[in-house]
Design goal:
This protein has twelve helices and eight strands. By secondary structure, it is of the alpha/beta class. It starts with a strand and ends with a helix. 43% of the residues are buried. It is found in: Cytoplasm.
């Protein structure tokens, strides 16, 4: 069964005091079961949040990582370093990383395999542009990205991968794919995973939706059979809205 996931990507926001206040407010109100609640602050605040959330039902994610365990990679973060401060998940391949920092499909795959080997769970992002959607290329684009990200990842390891479908045209724009549009892509990808692995593995892998997720649209989205939660941007920067998303996820219950 796939437990719902609500993952808050704080992006490049919040100073240390604000981040700690938000993390503690979320920790105080987070459900103790029925949902996996995750927050991803900027790298500077990971250690502080790791301590603040140590006994809370809220898990910590990094917004990025390098594939190497150490080395001459100025400015990068290694998996073992992240694990040491309490990080459990790593967001990989977000469209902003791809667009602004040259993240490639090959690099996402390399990082995915490295994080799994280093004891961290990747949240692998993918999605199409508005031009690609209007050209009818959505399925081809997301299938290519998912297959590329999972190349060389065996079925047992794949069960520790979280996928996140984020249509680029819906990120930070206020536009959201309709529940039917999102389910169409998620259902298609479930079939791709079954082709890559087997039905049991495909059914075990969570697929999140991201792109202007908020309490007003989340119930309809997560109510779809193949949408297992949300990768949330702006709505994760306020405890009230993030906790409301968690409550909606608990009401939905597990799938599979």
């Amino acid at each position: 069964m796939r437990t719902p996931i609500v993952a808050g990507n704080w992006k490049m926001n919040l100073g240390r005091r604000e981040a700690l206040e938000l993390g503690r407010a979320i920790a105080e109100g987070a459900p103790t079961q029925g949902v996996t609640a995750i927050v991803a602050p900027v790298a500077l605040h990971l250690a502080a949040l790791g301590e603040a959330l140590a006994s809370a039902p809220v898990l910590l994610a990094s917004q990025n990582a390098h594939w190497a365990e150490s080395g001459a990679y100025t400015g990068e973060l290694a998996g073992p370093m992240l694990r040491e401060v309490g990080v459990r998940y790593v967001i990989l391949g977000h469209s902003e990383r791809r667009q602004y920092f040259g993240e490639s499909d090959e690099g996402v795959n390399r990082k995915t395999r490295a994080m799994l080997a280093q004891g961290l769970r990747p949240i692998v992002c993918f999605g199409e542009s508005l031009e690609e959607r209007e050209a009818g290329q959505t399925q081809a684009k997301v299938e290519f990205q998912v297959r590329a990200a999972l190349a060389g990842v065996g079925a047992e390891d794949a069960k520790d991968v979280v996928l996140a479908y984020e249509p680029i045209w819906a990120i930070g724009t206020g536009k959201t794919a309709s529940p039917e549009q999102a389910q169409e892509v998620h259902g298609f990808l479930r079939g791709v995973l079954e082709d890559l692995y087997d039905r049991a593995t495909a059914q075990a892998m969570p697929i999140l939706y991201g792109g202007s997720v908020k309490p007003s649209n989340f119930a309809e989205l997560i109510g779809q059979p193949d949408i297992d939660g949300g990768l949330v941007g702006g709505a994760s920067l306020k405890a009230e809205s993030f906790l409301e998303l968690c409550r909606i996820a608990v009401q939905q219950g597990p799938k599979g």
